[in-house]
Amino acid sequence: MSAEPTSEVPLSAPGRWGRGLADAGAAASSALTHAPENAAYGLMALAPLGAAFGPVAMGLALLGAAAGCAVGSVAGSGRLVGDAGAALALLTAGLVGALVALVPPGPAAPWQVLVLVGLAIAMAGVLMVLFGLLRIGGLVKFTPYPVRTGLSTGVGLLLIVGALPALLGHGFGAAWAPGYDVLPAAALVAACALGITWCAERAHTRIPAVLLGLAAATALQLVLARTGFGATLGRTVGHPELPAAWFGGALLAADWPALLARPEILSLLGGFALTSAVVASLDTLLAASIIDGRLRRSRNANRELVAQGLANMGSALVGGLPASPAVPASMGLVMRRPAQRHIVLAYAAALLAVLLLGPMVLGALPTSAVGGVLAYLGALMMSPTLWETPRDLWRLRGGATPGQAGMAGRWRDLAANWAVMVAVALGALLLGLGPAVLIGATFAVLLFVRSNMRDVVRGVWSGGQRHSLRTRASSAAEVLRREGDRIAVLELDGPLFFGTADALRARLESLPPRVETVILDLHQISEIDVTAARILSEIAEDWARMGKRLVFAEWPSEDPRRGLMASVAGPAAAALLRFEETTDLALEQAEEALLVGLAAEDASGEPLRLADTMLARGLSADELALLTAGMTVHEFARGAVMFRAGEPGDRLYISLKGEIGLRVPGTTRRLASFAPGVTIGEMAVLAGAARSAEAVAETDVLALGMSVAAFDRLMQSHPALAARILGNIALHLGDRLRHVTTDLAGWVSRSGSGPQGAGSSSIGV
Hints:
The protein is of the alpha/beta class. It is about 55% helix and about 10% strand.
């Protein structure tokens, strides 16, 4: 992938003004879209401080997001929008609730809690900086996909549960109790916000879906308030505001040494800091990977962790919430202005302008509408795997899915992954997000890390080492031996997810520039997640743009993993994905393309002469005439069966034109494929035995045939000629035996046990 652009076309003054206005417009639109979300997360995170603290909670959340975005953009590579997300807001709410019970009550108590929360957020930022400086942040990428989806699903469930009181007409953090009162008009407003947002998202409207949902719900609230339903309407969120006396003068009276010396407080702050640092680091690396993949740029992941750690420290300094890069916000902003590295700075300024100049707009939003939007966002965070996997498990068990009957290993892997995801999600819902992260980390260590940390590339071969099953003329075979390093075959083994797919990308980038075609043998890939599918589709796009070929082999057309890659890539990119049923077919096509490009194989379509075949090597003109006299001409149309397994070996064939395949009886997998000039059927003729395989014309075939009787007459009347022919047959069989040995070695290596990755390589990887 390319680095930052090295040059730009100079812009005229009007051009600079136009670009500046476009940047400001994109930043303002994105800020207006995500300001309500940030404000709502502020209400949710600081709800334990009481409803009266709501306006300040929203103001501090917006200020912290603006400060964090500005610091992160300057310190990092830009293009990552750091917002107060659901997971971190829920973690903060848990910390605030616990601290409220430990801090002595009084007028200054809320501010003392905020100082302690700010200290914990700053500690999380310091940990992220250390992750980056020690270059260990990349390990977070190896978090298994079931753990990530379990955390995401748990956060979504918690977000829905946390938004329900607001959705039903009460404030954020309102306690559930018997006889809980539901305000019908408020619930109707929430349903309006949720429904309009859902419809707008699927219609791909130019105006952000969240803005449309909130605007429609606000209009409905105004209408209902004027038509006599005011008693059953919920409150508005209120105007965000900043504290007049920053953190209050009463803080000076607090006994900070005594507070910070309490073990329970220190353990709370430390646990929150570590959990938040891990969650924010995962969000940072994932968002950076997605943005870089779309823009075809690369960045230093460890530097980005340092930048986002500093961003959290900046947010803590102004009393804001912990933040991590949000993929939707980053994508929506950066993809509109991809050339602007620090467009996030403009977003931070716009967010600050919304806080300072437009609090009345946010203050008019109904609390129930914000709750409806948050419930919608929570539903989006829930992985469909939660309800789709039980159906897939049932189908696999009953063999209902084509091509998957009897896949006991696949069933066990799928069931284990689903169980991990459910355990992590339920842990988040029942125990809280902090314990859920610990549960997920435990599962990752016990079940996945040992197998997932090894190199996914099991072996690497050049085209000069590993050939297709097609037997070619000696001249073409020599060219492939000499130029075969233009082809590379990588055999992969194990699961493909964020970390292993990213490592595979680096491995492919390290291949020598001479390599023109890479074949990925996916036979041993047990599973692939959405992130890995996206990375592979991006790699395929990059190779196609360079005029090279990346081929995925060993996944049949009905394989769901192949369908996942196509769906993630989208229609345009999916057209660039090249799949082949087998590695052998992929190798054959790569060899054909190489030979055609080097003009090393006869492409005229003219039949060979008998003298050009392997059987007739070294024969004189008189000997060729004697050999020709005992032969007959045969033509076979494409797809015709030349002979079947079990039939008598009545004649051998010498192909002059077309391609012939030998197949295992009853299957479509071939044992070998022969180009013009080779002999087939000689084993049964020499041994007087039945055919052991099936021969099929893969194209229109022209061949010479020699019957058993004609061969016997030649041996009796011209023994010297027969001996020379038998010598050529022996050489030909020796070449074929070497092909079989190579193929058998490959299959044995696939079934070997113990540590993998011992495949040989001669192409510099």
